[in-house]
Design brief:
The protein is built from 25 helices and 12 strands. By secondary structure, the chain is of the alpha/beta class.
Length: about 550
Amino acid sequence: MTDEFISGIIQYGYLAVFLLIFLQEIGFPSPIPNEFVLLFSGYLSYNGIISAPLAILTAIAGDLLAGTILFLLFYFFRKFIRRLKPRWLPHPTKKLERISKQINEKGTSGIFIGRLTPFIRGYVAVLCGLLRVTPLKYSSALFLSSISWATCYVCIGYFIGPYQHLFLSSDKNLQILLILVPLFIILLYFLFQFIKKYFPFQNNKNNTVMKIHVVSETEYMVRGNGVHTAFVDHVELLKSENDVEIVVNNKGKGDVMHCHTYGPYYFLKGLRYRNRRVHTVHVIPDSIKGSLPAWKLLMPFVNFYFKQVYSYADVCIAISPMVKEAIQQTGAKTRIVSISNPINTEKWKRTDENRRKGRDLLGIRNEEFVVLGVGQLQARKGVEDFIDIATAIPGAEFVWVGGRPFGAMTEGISRINDRIESAPENIHFSGMVDLEIMPLMYAAADVLLFTSYQENCPLAPIEAAASGMPVVFRDIEEYKALYDHPYLSAASTHDFIETTNKLMTDQAFYSDGLAISKQLITQFNQSIIRQKLLSVYEGLHRTSGESIQVAQLI
């Protein structure tokens, strides 16, 4: 690799990765294959220069854009191009039509494999456009192959970081690695097809209950977030009765898949569940506002990506009216069903023992009034407002529970770090806390301030309400559409300060806050939510062509 190439990626980072990928995929000649670009990006992420997830997303964006442009160009101008009769084109019309028919009938496996093969992958978009491959088939193969291609090469570049001397010292070694990676992916693909054909999984036609495959990438990642909590609560809810069987992640195969996350794992697991995919939408495009830097530049890609996520599912679960509206705004082709997140209120009920343990963990005396904040340390969650409130009320102890799952890519991380370092002594930052410890955190507190600026169907305030404390929400439109019952709210930092002071000094007002919390949680009735979920599963399973009886629904 040339020094100019190395210094260019280091200096310009993601922009260099995007342009190198895009320009070569669109047809501009380059002495450095894109596979080298991805491997080197992974190597740089190993050394902490760039972020591996963002490098993957950047490469996917460049590849998708180039692949789409080439396909559309040759799709709409194929007649003009055929008249030119370029040497590389098998120009007899009948032959082109015959190849096109075979591709459309046999599926997208050939397109997928072709796009994983170095040096010929750039011609796939051209041929698919000329052959009039249906846009849906091409776009699905383009999307899945782009994710596989970028993710594999960047990850391999990351993992060979400790052995960099073996590869960076020799172009021959890099060329060997370049060839082995796609061969390995293609080998895995054919192995999967072989196992699927000659060792089929046992189906459930003779079973008396339906099997639900619940999927979430959070089990393998940072777990301190609401999506993981919703996933765990969902599994526990389905297991609470014996009328369905539950399979989680890699522990088997089911009749219907229900996924909570939206990464490559979701698309991979969904391959065997055509017409039987359910996706709970916890994240919408607007969720990146105030979460990631330069989010305005990312929005077009984010909107496109989430449209694919939602369209991949046969049913999208909208956990709030705002989520339903957001799904519709992406233009996704999917059925939308409104079902709230299930909340196991019994799990969060406070006890004197939990209160003592929680305060011991936080190092707070029993007589102190404790104000709790829960969420990731990012601008969207209102952590800076929480610090301002704590500064204005020195007579109370303030605790913020939550970390930074995006690490250095958190929006405003330097500014927030400065605020934390200069925060008064009455505010404590616990960092990420395991789900099993959260009942202790809620029990240790006297009131929850939920200062977030954007939410869908947040779990933390309902968990806090279930634990037996007043909850003060920020006054935003999402909650007005979401909640059936009244709730305490504050429109500004000044209002949060006033309400908190009143809860500290006015016992009658505090008792009213407790009553409001008790009424608020009645909306999230687990038995009703469970019945709605089973109805969705049964509908998908019945229409998929199999007849399995589900035990009596209650």
